[in-house]
Amino acid sequence: MLYVQLKKALYGTLQAALLFWKLLSNALQEWGFKINENDRCMANKKSNGRQCTITLHVDNLKISHVYKAEVDQILQKLNDKFQKNSPLMTTRGKILEYLGKTICYRQKRKVQFPLNNILRKY
Fold this sequence. Notes:
This protein is α+β, with helices and mostly antiparallel strands and 122 residues long. The protein has two domains: 10-90; 91-122, no CATH class. The chain has helices at 14-30, 68-82; strands at residues 34-35, 42-47, 50-57, 60-64, 95-98, 101-104. The model has no long low-confidence stretch (mean pLDDT 86).
């Protein structure tokens, strides 16, 4: 057996996921978000009169707000804080893939989760 002592968390380990969650949730709270007591992987904040919700899964985030500019501000803060370690990738649009799920926002006031093979209809 080989034992080593690391200076940083090793990506893919439970400890790394926990350390990143702590770092990210602390940053979100500094920016005025409140972590949901029932689901610690959700953060909410009233912004520009509307709710902004961030859903976290390890290092994947889904940011939702009515106004694009509000999402842009959060992305800029995330870039300022985390981009030095690795570039952030973003996806926008009416049809998104998040954690292997397709999310469709094409119909006003409706969110759909179509099966991937049915997505061609949209």
